[in-house]
Amino acid sequence: MQRPTSGTGTVLGTDLARTGDAGLRELRRRIGFVFQQFHLVGRLTVLENVCTGALGSLRGPRLGLFTYPRAIRERALDGLERVGLAGHAFQRADTLSGGQQQRVAVARSLMQRPELLLADEPVASLDPESSAQIMRLLKDIADQGSLTVLCSLHQVDLALNWADRVIGLRQGRVVMDLTAHDIDRAEVMRLYTEVGADPALLPAAVTPRTGTG
C-alpha cells in the first residue's frame, strides 16, 4: 500500500519501488490480507462479504449477492465451509461474534487464491479461545495450501506455539530471526524487557511455504 522511501522492498519477486501502478495492482491480487478489525460490511450477508474477496478478478461494480458469477458464489460457500461457517452464509455479518467475523475475513482473503497471506494482529481484539481458533486456522491454511502466512503478533506465546519462524523487530531493524524450535519464551521476553515499553518491537510469526525452508 506504501512505496518504500529508501532501501528496497521485494514481494513475490516484485521490487515495490520500481513497479508502476498496474504492476502493483497485479501484485495485490496475489496477496491476501486479514485485518485486525475485520473490515466486514456489517449489513451484508456473510456470503456476500466473502464474495467481495474476488472483486480483483472481476470487472465493474457488484450490487447484491446474485450479481456475482455462480462460480464465485460456490467458491465463497466452499471457503465458508473451510472456516466452519457455512451454516451462517445468509446471516448478516454484524450479528456474528468477533471470532466468527475474523473467520469470515479469512475466508474472504482466500477468495483471491493468494500466494502470500498477510495477517495484521488478527487476534488482538479476540478472547483467548477465539484467538487459538484463528491461529489454528491460519496454520492449517498454510500447511494444507502450501501458502506463506506472515502474521504480526504481540502475544509471545501465540508466536511460539504456532509459528515455524519468529522474527523480532526493534526500531525498524531485525534483532532476532530464528525458528520457533530454537528459541524459548524467556529469550523473547528478554527482548521486550530490553526495550521496556517501546512498541517498536514486534514479533512476527511466519509460516513459510512448504519446501522453502
Automatic annotation (TrEMBL):
Keyword Translocase: yes
Name of the protein in question: Phosphonate ABC transporter ATP-binding protein
Key words of the record: ATP-binding, Cell membrane, Membrane, Nucleotide-binding, Translocase, Transport
Residue span, ABC transporter domain: 1-196
Keyword Nucleotide-binding part of the UniProt annotation: yes
MF-aspect GO terms: ATP binding; ATP hydrolysis activity
Gene3D superfamilies cross-referenced by the UniProt entry: P-loop containing nucleotide triphosphate hydrolases
InterPro entries: ABC_transporter-like_ATP-bd (IPR003439), ABC_transporter-like_CS (IPR017871), MetN_ABC_transporter-like (IPR050086), P-loop_NTPase (IPR027417)
Lineage, top ranks: Bacteria, Bacillati, Actinomycetota, Actinomycetes, Kitasatosporales
Organism, scientific name: Streptomyces malaysiensis
Domain of life from the UniProt record: Bacteria
